[in-house]
Every structure is written in C-alpha cells, then in structure tokens.
Amino acid sequence: KKFGKMIAYFIDEVGNLERAIDTLLWMSSHGMPADRFTYTRVISACSCKYKLQSAILVFEDMQKAGVAADIFVFTALINACARAEDLDRAMDIFLNMCTKGFAPTNEVYNALIDACDKCRNGNTASEVFEHMCEQGVPRDVFTYTSLISAMGNCGRWEDALSLFHRMVHVEGVTPNIITYSVVISACHKGSQTERALELFDEMLSRGILPNTIVYSSTISACAMSGAWKEALRLFDAMDANHVAKDRIVYNSAISACAKGRQLSKALDIFAGMKAANIEPSEYTYSSLMAACAKVGDWQVAVSLYDDMQS
RNA sequence: CAGCGCGAUAAGCAG
User: Fold this and answer.
1) Over the stretch A181-212, which tens digit does the pLDDT of each residue have?
2) Nucleotide nearest to A223 (CA to C1')
3) pTM value?
4) Whose CB among A26, A119, A140, A291 lies 3.0–4.6 Å from A87's, allowing a Cys bridge?
C-alpha cells in the first residue's frame, strides 16, 4: 500500500515515470504486486508521455503477477494506443478485452473512436460508433466530439455536420466548447466558411465563451474562402473579449490575410506578434512568404527570409 | 476485520 502511494507520488509530484515503473516492477518481482489502481495509474501516465511500449510492458507485468485487469485498465491501454497512433493494437486490445468477457463501456468506445481519429481512419470510426449504438451503449459529448473530429480529419464535413445535428437534436447531448472547436475545424477543412461562422454564433447564443482554440479554428475557416475581413474582425474581437492570443491564432490570422492577398495586413499582424513577444514559427514565415508570392513582392519575401535566419 | 477514499476517454495554424 505504501509502495503504491510512492508510485503515485513519483508520477504526480516528481514526474518521474521511469522510477514509478521501476518501483512497480520491483514490487511484482518481490512477490507483492501493486493493486489494479496503481497499475492503471502507471499505464495512464505512460499514455500521457506517449510511451505505448512501456504501457504494454506494465500491462504484461500485471498479467504475469496475476493481478486481475478491469475495464479501467483496458480503457487506459486503448488510450495509450490512441496517443501512439496505433489503431491496430487498439483493436487487438479491444477484442482481447471482449473475449475476456468485459462488456465495453462508453469510455472504452470513446477511447477507440479517438484512436480512429488520431489515425485518420473515419470509416473505422463510423463502424465503431454504429457498433456502439447497436450494443445500446450510451453516447455522450466525448463520443460525438471524437467522432466529429474523425469525420473532419478525413474531409467528411457533411457527416461531421449531420452527426452534430444528431447529437444535439436526436440524442439530446449538449455540445461544449471542444465540440464546437472540432465541428468548426471540420468546416475549415471542408472550406465551409459560412457554416463555421453560423456555428460560432450558435455557440455564443448557448452562452459558451470562445477561447483561443475556437477563435483560431473559426479564423482558419474564414481563410478558406478569402474572408479575410471576417477573420480580422474575429481576431480583433479577441482583445475586446480578453482572450489571450497565442502563436497558432496569430498564424491563422496571417494565413487568412495571405489567402486574401492582403500582404500589408499580414505584416501588421506579424509586427503585433513580435510586439507581443510571441516567437514566429515556420508556419508564420511560410504564410507571410505565400502572401508575398500572391502579390508578387519578392523584396519583402527576401527580407522575411533574412529575418527568419537571424 | 470492516467501512471509506484512490485509477480510465475528446479540440486549433502554413507551404
């Protein structure tokens, strides 16, 4: 029990995963294996650090030590696969879990759909979702958010929108800020500017205050149809609404100007970015140079290139 | 010995 607390301490306070794993393995090799709670905690910590191999090693040790696994362990393992973008292994674990007689829960299906999303496999995501519905497992905001994200990531914006509709009006699941960010992002990838803006307004009317991520998704959606004025309006609204601007939202706004052939606006935003002490990235320079290319201003492109090198 | 507590799932940028 005390070693278990020590492992939790290594993970939560010290952030030393290696030590936590060593202690866990030491415990089982000395005939006093940790309980399933501790195993789950360690597997989850491996997942957070994208260490799928370690997660599997810990799970194998758990089985060797004769500690009975439960649905929480399997959920954490599937999540580790999702983070490592290994859908095949996620499926293996899922099937293995079913064979052992565990009925998949909402969380297990959600983690599996997330794995499909991370692996850009929209078809499998849809199949898993259908299976979930057939089994009568409840769908919640996590389910729909992951599934809509998976649709968006493989260009299926119509499906993303119809799932959003089904979520809200058929299943009565309330969308949150993350749901709006994925459905707006799906519109962005499908160049559906109008729909993205409608969703943004709908979100406001629900009383959800947009954060940096939702602004950047919506600004990117504006960029796709040359709606740079709308993009800049949103970008400026961030200050009025006291929403912090990060590098990504600056990049989104610069890209919107670039696609709308507004080089001087793009340069203004770039200046603002530097004034705010935000480091430009390769995305920043790439968008700025694209803007130069659009208007044929090679001199500014060269000066940006020099600026980038220094 | 008993009770209690402790563990799992989702989002944004360029060429």
Assistant:
1) 999 999 999 999 999 999 999 999 999 999 99
2) B13
3) 0.94
4) A119
